[in-house]
Automatic annotation (TrEMBL):
<dbReference type="Pfam" id="PF05982">
    <property type="entry name" value="Sbt_1"/>
</dbReference>
<feature type="transmembrane region" description="Helical">
    <location>
        <begin position="121"/>
        <end position="143"/>
    </location>
</feature>
<dbReference type="InterPro" id="IPR010293">
    <property type="entry name" value="Sbt_1"/>
</dbReference>
<feature type="transmembrane region" description="Helical">
    <location>
        <begin position="298"/>
        <end position="321"/>
    </location>
</feature>
<feature type="transmembrane region" description="Helical">
    <location>
        <begin position="328"/>
        <end position="349"/>
    </location>
</feature>
<feature type="transmembrane region" description="Helical">
    <location>
        <begin position="268"/>
        <end position="292"/>
    </location>
</feature>
<feature type="transmembrane region" description="Helical">
    <location>
        <begin position="63"/>
        <end position="82"/>
    </location>
</feature>
<keyword id="KW-1133">Transmembrane helix</keyword>
<protein>
    <recommendedName>
        <fullName>Sodium-dependent bicarbonate transport family permease</fullName>
    </recommendedName>
</protein>
<feature type="transmembrane region" description="Helical">
    <location>
        <begin position="37"/>
        <end position="57"/>
    </location>
</feature>
<feature type="transmembrane region" description="Helical">
    <location>
        <begin position="6"/>
        <end position="25"/>
    </location>
</feature>
<keyword id="KW-0812">Transmembrane</keyword>
<keyword id="KW-0472">Membrane</keyword>
<feature type="transmembrane region" description="Helical">
    <location>
        <begin position="89"/>
        <end position="109"/>
    </location>
</feature>
Length: 359
């Protein structure tokens, strides 16, 4: 109950309530972008300062290794499960969404740990950045393989064809995303998307603005150390909680806008959006326990494994896998999994880890 009284969680609830009652409360797009830039910059600085104080330890190596393992296992396992109820392209997109991570969920978890006086390594910000891209790369590889299998019989049956593109537009959180239209039963009616080279996807993933800002700020914090921490404390420390509350207020409004799309989803997909993150977190906790990762780091690994991307993945997948439906993977991650983790997941994972490590 104490976790529900945290100001950040309450502002998120306020945003959801305002959206449900159709209030005219809204956050200007420029302000939303500024808040996301601020949170990433402050988080990177905090991580760099902490890493400068602790250095590269065996615990750091264990957490980074687990991050890579989870970033590969979670999307692959998700694809195998989702392929039973979705078309291949939709399954790849949803698996990428749940195999990647949510920076806002991570930031909220760090604030919760600080409020509970649970220490964690600042290098976990680097772990978060490391876990963001593998799922996207795997999804693109799966989509390329699906296109090759579909193109082979089509080429043999119809030597010369001319297909006009059919494009559907889906409104997600106030932004319009383009996607290939999907027919009933998961059959693509749009032409196959481009077969993108993995090198191009890697370049776009690692030069993405959020990744670059987060890692760049971490390097700056690492280089400047204690002197930089003292100089930036009013910016990256004192303002952080208030900025997070404003951002979660905006996220609450976005969540409320996506709830109608959630109600249209299959019960099987809704079950995956709830149970999948719990299973992913359980896997992270089990592996962290085997390697005796510190409590705070284990909690954050569980949070990252349980989170789902609603920013990075849609930004890449809507172009890399246009055959998939954005309204599907965005509504599940933002309308179901994000609020579940913010309100209940973070305190649950923390309690489970604390009890296991103390026992």
């Amino acid at each position: 109950m104490h976790s529900l009284l945290d100001p950040a969680v309450l502002f998120f609830a306020l945003g959801v309530f305002a959206g449900l009652v159709r209030s005219n409360l809204e956050m200007p797009a420029a302000i939303s972008k500024f808040l996301s830039i601020y949170l990433l910059m402050a988080l990177g600085l905090k991580g760099g300062f902490a890493l400068a104080a602790s250095g590269f330890t065996p615990s750091v190596a264990s957490s980074l290794g687990l991050a890579v393992l989870l970033a590969v296992v979670v999307p692959l396992a998700g694809y195998v499960v989702l392929r039973r109820v979705l078309s291949g392209f939709n399954a790849a997109a949803v698996a990428a969404t749940y195999g990647s991570v949510s920076a806002v969920t991570f930031v909220t978890a760090t604030q919760y740990l600080e409020s509970q006086s649970v220490p964690y390594g600042g290098y976990m910000a680097a772990v978060m950045a490391l876990m963001e891209s593998p799922a996207i790369i795997l999804a693109v590889m799966l989509a390329n393989a699906l296109r090759q299998r579909q193109a082979a019989p089509a080429t043999a049956a119809i030597p010369i064809t001319r297909v006009q593109p059919v494009v559907a537009m889906a409104s997600v959180g106030g932004a319009t995303l383009g996607a290939g239209a999907m027919g009933n039963g998961g059959t693509a009616t749009a032409p196959p998307g481009p077969r993108l080279a993995i090198g191009k996807i890697l370049h776009e993933s690692f030069t993405d603005g959020t990744q670059l800002l987060l890692l760049g700020a971490m390097v700056i914090g690492l280089v400047t150390g204690d002197a930089g921490k003292a100089a930036m404390q009013p910016f990256s420390g004192d303002l952080f909680k208030g900025m997070l509350c404003l951002f979660l207020l905006d996220m609450g409004l976005s969540t409320a806008r996506n709830l109608p799309a959630v109600r249209r989803q299959s019960p099987w997909l809704l079950a995956y959006a709830v149970l999948g993150p719990l299973l992913h977190a359980s896997l992270a906790v089990a592996l962290a326990w085997l390697l005796q990762v510190p409590v705070g780091d284990a909690v954050l690994l569980a949070v990252l494994a349980a989170s789902a991307s609603y920013i990075a993945v849609p930004a890449v997948v809507r172009f890399a896998i246009p055959e998939a439906e954005p309204s599907l993977y965005v509504s599940l991650s933002l309308g179901v999994t994000f609020p579940l983790n913010i309100v209940l997941g973070i305190p649950l994972y923390t309690q489970v880890v604390q009890r296991l490590w103390q026992g």
